[in-house]
């Protein structure tokens, strides 16, 4: 599994899945946690990949504990 990269005051990672449907399901499964924590990533999907960028906008686009928590959650969700 690839690790998160710190780039331009953000955390970035690409998750790769077997199929397009698996990638879309990952995004859908992450939605309740993202809504609950009110911490929304910038992400996009291209076929079987989901590219994720996380930063805390209200902290001046800095990486904060909120970003690390979301990154950890997405990693755990991906392992399932």
Provide a brief overview of the structure.
The protein is built from 2 helices and 4 strands; from the N terminus they run ββαββα. By secondary structure, it is of the alpha+beta class.
Note down, in words, how this protein is organized:
By secondary structure, the chain is an alpha+beta fold. 41% of the residues lie in helices and 26% in strands. It has one domain (5-79): Gyrase A, domain 2 (2-Layer Sandwich), CATH 3.30.1360.20. It has 2 helices and 4 strands, in the order ββαββα. The protein has a 4-stranded antiparallel beta sheet with strand order 1-2-4-3, covered by helices on one side. The longest helix is centred in the middle third of the chain and has 18 residues, at 20-37. The radius of gyration is 12 Å and the shape is globular.
Map the helices and strands.
Layout: E1 5-7, E2 10-16, H1 20-37, E3 42-46, E4 49-54, H2 65-79
Antiparallel strand pairs: 1-2, 2-4, 3-4
Helix pairs in contact: 1-2
**Counted beta strands:** 4
- CATH fold label: Gyrase A, domain 2
CATH class type: Alpha Beta
Cα end-to-end separation: 13 Å
List descriptors.
4 strands, 2 helices, Gyrase A, domain 2, alpha+beta
């Amino acid at each position: 599994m690839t690790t998160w990269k710190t780039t331009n005051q953000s955390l970035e990672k690409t998750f790769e899945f077997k199929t397009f449907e698996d990638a879309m399901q990952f995004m859908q499964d992450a939605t309740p946690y993202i809504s609950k924590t009110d911490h929304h990533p910038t992400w996009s999907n291209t076929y079987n990949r989901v590219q994720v960028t996380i930063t805390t906008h209200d902290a001046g686009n800095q990486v904060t504990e909120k970003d690390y928590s979301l990154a950890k959650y997405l990693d755990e969700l991906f392992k399932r």
